[in-house]
Structure formats: C-alpha cells, structure tokens
Design brief:
By secondary structure, the chain is of the alpha+beta class. The protein has four domains: about 130 residues, Actin, Chain A, domain 4, CATH 3.90.640; about 180 residues, Substrate Binding Domain Of DNAk, Chain A, domain 1 (Sandwich); about 200 residues, Substrate Binding Domain Of Dnak, Chain:A, Domain 2; about 30 residues, no CATH class. Helices cover about 50% and strands about 15% of the residues. It is built from 15 helices and 13 strands. The strands form four sheets. Strands 5-4-8-9-13 form a five-stranded antiparallel β-sheet, with no helix packed on it. It has a four-stranded antiparallel β-sheet with strand order 7-10-11-12, with no helix packed on it. Strands 1-2 form a two-stranded antiparallel ribbon. Strand 1 and strand 2 form a beta hairpin. Helix 9 packs antiparallel against helix 10 and helix 14 packs antiparallel against helix 15. The longest helix has about 50 residues. It is extended. The two termini are about 90 Å apart. InterPro entries: ATPase_NBD (IPR043129), HSP70_C_sf (IPR029048), HSP70_peptide-bd_sf (IPR029047), Hsp_70_fam (IPR013126). GO terms for molecular function: ATP binding; ATP-dependent protein folding chaperone. Belongs to the heat shock protein 70 family.
C-alpha cells in the first residue's frame, strides 16, 4: 500500500464539539443562577459527559433534545435543550476547518474528487451528520462505514504489532508512508575548510557545496521507509544535530530530534577526510543515523598485461584484443600441422604481451562510533530505570511480608483468645489462661498503637513470644485428642501378633516352618513393648489435662513401628520348597529326554501298549506336579 498524501490538524477533533456544548451550557447556567467563578473539577467532568451524550443523541435525532445534570453547582440543577441545527450553527467554524483539511489532502495528492474510488470513515467523530455532509461535498460521494469506526485503528495497531513480533507469522504487507515533518541536520563549520560537504555525487548521495551548515535530508512527503547518504569533509570528531524543519506543523514545540557525535576523540586528521553518513527513517517516522564510515582512498601498483604493439599504460587492457588473442590460440591448436615457414611467419606477426606496473585507486571504509543523545532513553538510563524498578519490586515484596507478619500476629491474638474461652480451656491452668489472655490484650493494644508500622522482624519476634505461651496448651489438647487413637492402633497390632502365636501353639501348618528361636523372639518382643505401653499409660492416665503428657503420640507411633519391624519379617517368612517338588522335576526331564531319544532312533520298537504305559506314567507325573 502506498500513501499518496497525508494531512492532519492536531487541534481539531470530536473534543472540540464537546467543548462548544460545554461552554454554551456552562455560561447559560452561570448567568441563570448568577454564579461567580468557574465550575469545580467534578462538575466540569459531569457536564462534559452529558455534553458528549447529547452530541451522540443529536447525531441520530434531529428534534430538540434535553440535557439535565442534577446538583451541578451549589445544589442547582442544569436543565436545557438543543436542536441539531443549533449545534451545527454553533460549530460552523469547525466545519470550515474540516473542509479545508479535506481539500488540502486532495491538493497534496494531486487528485480530483472524481479520481477517488471510495472514502472510508473511521473514528467516533465521523458519525456526526455534518461531518458526513462535508465529506460528501468535498469528495462528491458519500463516506462509507463498512469498517468498525471505533476499532479500526486498534485493529491496525494489533496487526502492526503482530508484524513486528517474532511470535506471529503474518502475510507480508508493505506500507509506503510519507514524511509529514521535514527533517534537517545541522553541524558546526570548521575553520579553514573550503567546503563542508563533498561536491560530487556517489550513488545518489545528497551533496551540497559551500559553507551551508543545514541540510534537508528528508523533505516533506518524501516516501518512507528510506535511507539517505551524505559525505562530509571533516578533520576529526564532530557533532550533528537532527531537528524538524517546520516548527508550526508540529503538535508540540520541541523541534530537536537528537544529537549524534561521530568518531573518537583520538581520531584527528591533518587534512579534511571524507566521512560517509547513512541516515534512515523507518515506517514509523523514526529518524536515526545508522552508519558512519571513514573513507580512505589510496593508490597501489598492480600488474597489467599490455601488448607491445598497442601499449596501454593509463587505462585497462583492451578486452577485444584479449578475446582475439584467445581465439587465435585456440585456432592454432585445432588446425592440422603446417610447414615450419608458415609457423615462423605467424609467430613474427602475432602481437607479443608484456607485464607492466600500473597505479590503481582503491577505497577502504572504516566504521566510526556514533554516540546518540536524543529524546529516547539511553541504554544507561534504561538500566538505571530497570534497577529502580527492581528495587521497587523488592520493596513491595518486603512490604507484603511485613503486612503478612503483622496480620499473622493479629490473627493469632483473636484465634487464641477465642480458643482459650472454648476448646482449649480444659488444658490450661487458671494462671496460664490469665497470663496468656493478658498478653493477648497487651499485644492487641500494641498492634493498633506503637506497633502499627514496624519492621517485619519485630512482628516475627512478637509472634514467637505469643507462641511460646500458647503452643504448650495447644500441644496438650492435640495429645489428648490423638492419644486414644494411637493407643488403639498399638493394641490392635499386639492382638494380631498374639493371634499368630496362638496359631503356632495350636500347630497350624501355616507357621510350622518357623523355628523355635523365631517364635521365642516374637514372644519376647510382644512382652517387651506391651509392658512399655502399660507402664506409660499407668503414668499418663492419672495426670490432669493441664499438665504436659508423660508419653507423646509420636513416641507411641514410633514404638509400634519398631515392634512391627521386628515381628512382621518373622511372620512373613516364606516356607521352604518341599522335597517331593524338587525330586519330581528332574525325573520328568530325564523321561522326556528319553522319549525324545526313542523317537529319533529308527530301531525303536513302536508297540502301542508300550506307548500307552509311558503316556500313563507321564500323566501321573504331571498330576503330581499339579
């Protein structure tokens, strides 16, 4: 897509229509109630919102429409009306500016209204009927609304972002834009220099002659993206300044694009040297000096083949002569041999070649450093901002941790106070309960007083102090709640092992493979751990709930696991294989091998009775194995 023309007015849009309505209604409201001064910020925003709603309503309705705002100022209500015709008369000068803008666009594109195929309207302001009328009067056709007026620009931005992103693959779509704001470069004049730029053109390089220090590198409506090159004659390091040429056409008053320092301080030349600069403007209108090179020209002697009859010293050898010589050589090699006199005559007439040294000009390009200082952030500034951002993130993290620690203290205070008066009351003595409740009350007052905004470690220490008083009570309650289940599991394990001992004593074949030593070990283990459990429970049962337990639930569970680790391997000992199983297997193998030998032997007696007897023996052996 190629853009033929672009015109704009940075100070004209739908906001101006809203302001016209606002100014009219605000002035009438103040005159009606004789109010002094302007409206407040809140009242201004409310009235602007109602004006925008009225503007949209008048776009769809030509009749008189009301506007009402309650309690706009000093408890006064605004109530007014307006017709579309009055609105168009109020904004007549804005319509003239729109018409001038459209006409200028046609003039810049060098087109007539009949050359335009279609006009597409986008933007919320394009829905106003008087804007549509202006478009129809200038372009001699009605504006189309096939695109979404509110989302067209946003979708184009999303498509351009997808083109720039490596994560999306889109079709190639090239846009040839135009430079709306001409750009010039300015540089200082060097003393004793006859010219500031090279006068000859090299591949379309922009050149100028004399001592002009401002050059327009990208004129108005120049197609972009594009690159331009200039060649300067400088003695060493120099600075360029890029700026916009026309200050009045800019939406702001900042005309400086940036400064570019070319070269190193150590590079100083006795005479002017050529510096080649490559400037580029991308599709988005961003200017940059992409490359700076030092042009070094030198002469070097090279060998050149020339003919003695037609020596060429100042120019390259004649290509025609080279081709002719090559064709003559090929002809001599292909023709049949001739007599020696003819050969000597040809040798004497053919031109002889010789090599001479000739000076040729060569050019080298050395890249120069470019130090950019523009309105964009430099790499150093970006790194500093990233560091500041990381510090802010770290501060936010510390603040969250501090707030969480403070909330943990507050949560513990409320939770512990509630539990002390409920389920934890039987497990705390009166002195412990009174002391802990007093500490909780003091902590609550401290949180909403001196401890409102302290560092995180202070809240961590305070929570640890509270837990040192409250955790023993919670521990007693948990032990009292979980101890019966742990003791019950321990007794069940004892009962299971005793049943195994009873089966062994009854002579059941399931455990007849266990040795007497293993049985004695089972009995001793049961007696040992059962005695330990009974002793612990005898000491624990008479103790009050407000005292610490003699035996913990974890101790009971660990003793049960220790007992089972000794008894279970003995109980689960597998039986050894029986002797009948080990003897029958080799006999069967030997008989099978004998049968295979008989089958392979041609002298074997094939008696049916013998075969039936062998088959019966095989069946008996198979039954024994089963």
């Amino acid at each position: 897509m190629k853009v033929l023309a672009t015109t704009c007015d940075a100070f004209l849009g739908g906001r101006d229509f809203d302001e016209r309505l606002f100014n009219k209604f605000a002035s009438e409201f103040q005159q009606q109630y004789k109010l002094k001064g302007s409206l407040s910020s809140k009242a201004t925003i409310r009235l602007l919102q109602e004006c925008e709603k009225l503007k949209k309503s008048m776009s769809a309705n030509s009749s008189e429409l009301p506007i009402n705002v309650e309690s706009l100022a000093e408890d006064r209500d605004l109530a007014n009306k307006m017709k579309r015709t009055d609105f168009e008369e109020l904004c007549s000068d804005l319509l003239e500016r729109f018409q001038m803008l459209f006409t200028k666009c046609l003039d810049v594109a060098k087109l007539k209204s009949g050359d335009v195929h279609s006009v597409e309207l986008i933007g919320g302001c394009s829905r106003i009927p008087m804007i549509k009328n202006v478009v129809a009067s200038v372009f001699k056709q009605e504006g189309k609304t096939s695109l979404n007026a509110d989302e067209a620009v946003a979708r184009g931005c999303a498509f351009q972002a997808a083109i720039c992103s490596p994560a999306f693959k889109v079709k190639d779509f090239t846009v040839v834009e135009q430079c709306l704001y001409p750009i010039i470069i300015q540089f200082d004049q060097e003393e004793g220099s006859e010219q500031c730029m090279q006068t000859e053109e090299i591949d379309g390089t922009l050149t100028t002659q004399g001592k002009n220090m401002c050059i327009e590198v990208f004129p108005f409506l120049h197609p972009i993206p594009s690159s331009r090159q200039i060649v300067l004659l400088r003695h060493g390091v120099f600075t360029l300044e890029a700026r916009y040429a026309n200050k009045d056409s800019l939406p702001n008053q900042n005309i400086v694009i940036g400064t570019f320092r070319i070269g190193d301080a150590s590079q100083v030349f006795t005479e002017p040297r050529k510096i080649k600069l490559k400037m580029r403007m991308n599709t988005h209108g961003i200017f940059n000096i992409s490359q700076a090179q030092l042009v070094e020209e030198y002469e070097k002697e090279v060998e050149v083949n020339v003919s003695e009859d037609n020596p060429v010293v100042d120019g390259p050898p004649n290509s025609k002569q080279e081709v002719t010589t090559a064709s003559n050589g090929d002809t001599d090699s292909q023709n049949p041999p001739v007599d020696s006199n003819q050969t000597e005559m040809q040798d004497s007439t053919s031109p002889k070649k010789k090599t001479v040294m000739k000076k040729k000009k060569f050019t080298k390009y050395h890249d120069l450093s470019i130090e950019v200082s523009n309105m964009q952030f430099t790499t150093k500034q970006l790194n500093e901002f990233c560091e500041i951002g990381a510090n802010l993130i770290q501060q936010d993290k510390l603040e969250r941790e501090r707030v969480n620690s403070k909330n943990a203290v507050e949560e513990y205070v409320y939770e512990m106070r509630s539990k002390l008066q409920g389920p934890l009351n039987p497990f705390a003595s009166s002195a412990e309960s009174e002391s802990l409740l007093q500490l909780l009350d003091m902590t609550e007052e401290w949180l909403y007083g001196d401890g409102e905004s302290l560092k995180r470690h202070v809240y961590v220490e305070k929570l640890a102090e509270l837990r040192s008083k409250g955790d023993p009570i919670v521990h007693r309650a948990n032990e009292h709640l979980n101890r019966p289940l742990a003791v019950d599991n321990f007794n069940r394990s004892l009962v299971r092992i005793r049943k195994v001992l009873d089966s062994i004593a009854a002579g059941e074949p399931t455990y007849d493979h266990l040795t007497q030593a293993q049985v004695n070990q089972l009995e001793d283990t049961i007696v040992q751990y059962e005695t330990w459990l009974n002793q612990q429970m005898v000491q624990q049962n008479p103790r009050p709930q407000t005292s610490d337990p003699v035996v913990k639930v974890t101790d009971i569970v660990s003793q049960q696991q220790a007992m089972e680790s000794v008894c279970h391997p003995i109980i689960n000992t597998p039986k050894p294989p029986t002797a009948s199983h080990t003897n029958n297997t080799p006999d069967l193998n030997s008989q099978n091998s004998g049968q295979s030998n008989d089958v392979n032997n041609p002298n074997t007696n094939c008696n049916p009775g013998t075969n039936h007897s062998k088959k019966g023996a095989d069946d008996e052996q198979n039954m024994d194995l089963d």
